[in-house]
Structure formats: C-alpha cells, structure tokens
From TrEMBL:
<feature type="transmembrane region" description="Helical">
    <location>
        <begin position="159"/>
        <end position="179"/>
    </location>
</feature>
<dbReference type="GO" id="GO:0009190">
    <property type="term" value="P:cyclic nucleotide biosynthetic process"/>
</dbReference>
<keyword id="KW-0472">Membrane</keyword>
<protein>
    <submittedName>
        <fullName>HAMP domain protein</fullName>
    </submittedName>
</protein>
<feature type="domain" description="HAMP">
    <location>
        <begin position="180"/>
        <end position="232"/>
    </location>
</feature>
<feature type="domain" description="Guanylate cyclase">
    <location>
        <begin position="272"/>
        <end position="399"/>
    </location>
</feature>
<dbReference type="GO" id="GO:0035556">
    <property type="term" value="P:intracellular signal transduction"/>
</dbReference>
<dbReference type="GO" id="GO:0004016">
    <property type="term" value="F:adenylate cyclase activity"/>
</dbReference>
<keyword id="KW-0812">Transmembrane</keyword>
<dbReference type="InterPro" id="IPR003660">
    <property type="entry name" value="HAMP_dom"/>
</dbReference>
<dbReference type="Pfam" id="PF00211">
    <property type="entry name" value="Guanylate_cyc"/>
</dbReference>
<dbReference type="InterPro" id="IPR001054">
    <property type="entry name" value="A/G_cyclase"/>
</dbReference>
<dbReference type="GO" id="GO:0016020">
    <property type="term" value="C:membrane"/>
</dbReference>
<dbReference type="Pfam" id="PF00672">
    <property type="entry name" value="HAMP"/>
</dbReference>
<keyword id="KW-1133">Transmembrane helix</keyword>
<dbReference type="InterPro" id="IPR029787">
    <property type="entry name" value="Nucleotide_cyclase"/>
</dbReference>
Length: 445
C-alpha cells in the first residue's frame, strides 16, 4: 500500500494485492514436495510480524483432519482451526510461536531445534525476508521433523553401536581363542602332573613352541623320564628286598612286617620240625680258602632250599652248618611228617651226590620231631625269623643225641611212620629229666 497526496494532503491510498495462491505455489513447491527434495516431515512457510502464517501449512494441505487434531492438541484455538478449514487455508490464521520465528523477527538467521505449531520437535532454519522498497517484515522458515532430520545420524549411531558390539564380540572371541591357545600347554602340563602324582611316570608331552612354555615342557619331560628311571630302580630294589625277606621268613610274616607290626608271633599246632647239620665241614675247611668253603656251603644250602620247596617244607633259618626247617607252619598239611621224612632223605642224597662229585666225605645228621611251635620275628635293627617250642628243642636234641650221621626221629614221628618206614632204636635222650627214646631211619633212599 502507498498514500496518494495532493497539496500536501493525503487524498487516498493505492493498494497492490499479493495473490496468496502464487505464494503458496512457491512455498509448497507447487505441492511437489518429494520432487523438490523435501521429506515427509519437511515444509517451508512465511510468517508475519503478528506471528501468523503468510502461507499455507503443508499438513493442512495434505491432511486437514490430521491438521485439526494436531493443532488443537498443540493449543491452537478450535475456532481458528475451524476457520482455516472453512476458508481452505491457514494464511493469516495459524499462529506460529516458535523460537526460530522470534529470532528471525529480530533480524537473525540460523538453525535451531524447536517446537512447531503442532507441538512436534523439529529442526528449524529461519531468516528475515527482505523485500526491496517494501515495509514488509515477514520471516521465512524451513522445518523438518527431528525423526527425519536426524534419521541419518540415528542410523549411523545404530550402525556404530552394532559395529562396536561386533568388534567387542570379535575381540572377546579372539581373546578366548588366544587364551585357549596359551592355556592349552599349561593344561597339558597339569594333566601330565596329575598322571605322575597318580603313579604313571610314562608321560611325555609334545613340545610345540620355542618359548618359555616350550622350555618348561622340555624340563617336565626330562623330569618325567628321570622319575620313571628312579621308579624302575626303586621297584627293582623293592623286588630285591622282597626276595631277601622271603628268603628269611614266610610270606604271611613278610606281609605283616610290611604293614608295620612291631611284635609278630604266631602259635602253630601239628608242625613237624627238622634240624640238620652237615658233618665234616670243619675238617675240610682246613684245606680250603674262605671263598671256597663259603661256596660249598652256599651250593649245598641252595640245593636244600630247592628240595624244601619241592616237598612243601619251609626253611626257618641257617646257623653255621646247621639247617632248621618245618612243615605245616605256613600251610597246614596232614602229611607234614611224611613230607619232612622225604625231605630229610633228599638232603642226604644231595650230600652223597656232592661227595661223589668232589671226593669229600661229608655226612648229614638230622633230627625230626612233631608238635606245637611258636614262630615270630626278633630284633629291631637286625630282624631274625625264628621258631621256638618243645618240638624245636626236642628236634635239636634228637639230632645231637648221637655223634653218628643219620636221620633220627622222636617217638611221635616213629609212631606216625613206623608202618611205612624202617627205623632202628638209637638210644634215648633226656628231656626235663625224663629219658625218651629216639629212632634212626634205616632206609638209604
């Protein structure tokens, strides 16, 4: 508008109307928002100094009912909304009270995040609209919903989170695999240690690295081999100890001795005892060296041991040239007397065979008795297995009751064997002040 004056006086006003339709075509891109590069939540509009729109709202153009609902919910008076729907536009009706408009009215240009006339969060660009040679004080605003404006940022954030999570998972998986690879040699060493602690020394772990773990594995293998060798030596020593113990005492006594029993003694009934010595060893020792004499005694006693084992007789001990054995101690036997007689005859044959081979004149003298005995271990630092009892004493007295070689038996033995063996009276021996007869086995084989 412009005044018309004459003679200094205003005579009228000239007004030039602005077509709203053209303004709306420009501000709405002729309603081709997508072609103009605007998203669904993007619009541009003009606003005047009275904070009313100077162009139509995109939401009103596209969906009047949705415009009504959102505008009323945002606080726009219902009569204003109804008037806009009645007139078919929001120009000069819809109030705009955004922070961007106020800044544009102050002559500022910029972009902010604000709330629009429908109370939606939006990214808002604003600027004052300068029309040359005009007193219009309009503002232009371009808005875009936050959900659309920051969609790329949100997508990037989601992608960044997913990538970060994937990287973290990858690092965790890689760490687990690396940890497994690093711990695997240690676990093999642990398994090998458990086998060794269980007594299995035949353990060899493959050396797969050349680092400290590899050096430790090689040292472990060397230790395992050394332990295996030492275990073999210890087992050999145990077997040798067992052999020595079994040569000194019966196996049941050895077992009790291993278990740590301090006092080992046991009573036995119906046992036959033989005490024998080899006559003539002292005489031939004058012409022999010590090694030769010991060799002869060892050879004879080894043969005695073999014969005892074959007849079921257990050697008790040896003393000088004496040999004490029994039958029925370890394993009770009904024929212990007969077995002992057979063993004595075998001992005599061994001595006779030795004489024929060497030319010496050794003789066997043996005493046999039967009865109850007590066996056990005596001593601590030097353990000796021995046998006591009247049967043992009488067997010794019987063997020494005659200076002549031969196999002598007591009356109980004679009574048990008189029907199957030939005996001759050999005098008497004194037992507790009482004379008891002894008999000499007459058979030579």
């Amino acid at each position: 508008m412009a005044p018309v004056q004459a003679d200094g006086r205003t005579q009228g006003v000239i007004a030039l109307p602005l077509p709203i339709a053209k303004i709306n075509r420009i501000m709405t891109a002729n309603q081709q928002w997508q072609s103009a590069g605007m998203g669904r939540g993007t619009e541009t509009y003009l606003a005047g100094p009275d904070s009313l729109m100077r162009s139509d709202s995109r939401l009103f153009v596209e969906d009047p009912d949705e415009y009504r609902r959102q505008s009323v919910a945002a606080g726009t008076p219902l009569d204003v909304v109804n008037r806009a729907i009645q007139l078919g536009g929001t120009t000069l009706l819809q109030p705009v009270a955004s922070a961007g408009l106020r800044a544009a009215q102050r002559g500022q240009t910029g972009t902010i995040t604000a709330t629009d006339y429908t109370d939606n969060k939006e990214l808002e660009a604003y600027a004052p609209l300068d029309v040359p040679n005009s007193d219009l004080h309009w503002s232009i605003l371009a808005t875009r919903d936050n959900s659309e404006a920051f969609a790329a940022v949100a997508a990037f954030s989601r992608a960044l989170v997913l990538v970060t999570v994937a990287i973290i998972l990858g690092i965790c998986v890689a760490s687990m695999l690396i940890a497994q690879a690093m711990v695997r040699p240690v676990r093999r060493l642990e398994a090998g240690t458990q086998k060794i602690s269980a007594g299995d020394y035949d353990v060899t772990i493959p050396v797969t690295t050349r680092d400290e773990i590899g050096d430790l594995t090689a040292a472990f293998n060397a230790m395992s081999r050394n332990l295996e060798i030492k275990e073999g030596l210890l087992n050999e020593q145990r077997r040798e100890n067992d052999r020595l113990l079994l040569s000194m005492m019966p196996e049941p006594v050895v077992q009790r001795y291993r278990e740590g029993e301090q006092t080992i003694a046991q009573e036995h009934q119906d046992v036959t005892v033989i005490f024998a010595d080899v006559l003539g060893l002292d005489e031939i020792s004058k012409d022999l060296s010590g090694n030769e004499l010991v060799g002869i005694v060892d050879d004879l006693f080894r043969q005695f041991d073999s014969a005892a084992e074959s007849h079921g007789v257990e050697r008790i001990r040896t003393l000088h040239n004496g040999y004490l054995a029994s039958c029925g101690v370890t394993t009770p036997r009904l024929d212990n007397v007969a077995r002992t007689i057979d063993f004595a005859l075998e001992m005599r044959r061994i001595v006779d065979r030795f004489n024929r081979q060497t030319g010496h004149e050794l003789r066997l003298r043996a005493g046999i008795n039967t009865g109850n005995v007590i066996s056990g271990l005596v001593g601590r630092s030097s353990v000796v297995y021995d046998m006591w009892g009247a049967a043992v004493s009488l067997a010794y007295q019987t063997h020494s009751g005659s200076p002549q070689p031969g196999i002598y038996v007591t009356a109980p033995v004679y009574e048990a064997m008189r029907d199957v063996r030939q005996f001759t009276p050999a005098g008497t021996i004194s037992v507790g002040g009482v004379d008891q007869p002894i008999y000499r086995l007459s058979e030579r084989s």
